[in-house]
Hints:
The chain is mainly β. It has strands spanning 5-14, 19-24, 35-37, 41-42, 45-46, 56-61, 69-74, 89-93, 100-104, 109-113, 126-181, 184-188.
Amino acid sequence: MAELLRQGQASERDVDTATARVTMDDLNGTVSGKLQVLFPAAGGWNFFWTPKEGDHVVVSKLPNGTQEGYVIGKVYTGNKMPQGGEPNIILIVSDDGKNVVKFDADNGTLDLIVDQTASIKCNALNIEVKKDLTIKSETADITVEKKATIKAESADIETKKETNIKCESAIIDASKSAEIKSPDIKMDSAKAKITGGNLEVGGTAAPTGTGPFCGLPACLITGAPHVGDKVAGT
């Protein structure tokens, strides 16, 4: 049978074995052995963690002394209050407050704030947004080896500098409107097809030899330039 719960400060941790030593406040600073850290788990998902040195923790000691037991969890201290002062949310936040994962059960929202670099790696990715999707970035590199599908009612992608999109196959399906704004956009593809009513370019399009009378640079009657079914030049 375990003893009563005790409180102390983590003095050493081992991330390989998920254990920590704890200095007991109520045992005149006695340092425990390596205590196993308990962690939440659901199905095949595990939330691994170890307290860092100085964290206030609660431990449950086994009756055979100070060498065996469990670290149950951290204690709320200082400005690290539960749920960030909001009801009905699950909050994962770094000590400096710059990295946040927030699930809000009342509003059905998810906030993901990463101050450094975030990576998403998966075998297949489908993003479906019922209303609006906005992506803003200084630079963006999107590389898809096979296929990427984005479906939305409306989508805005805005970058301040450069956007590179490289993929084997890409589909962007917007039922209303899609806008891509950037000073410099590069699209590298062996074949590109645009289906729509009209295509407007900033300059003139040179004849390609595939359309009616396309061998002639200009119409003999109106003097307008001839173009084929493909656009070449700007």
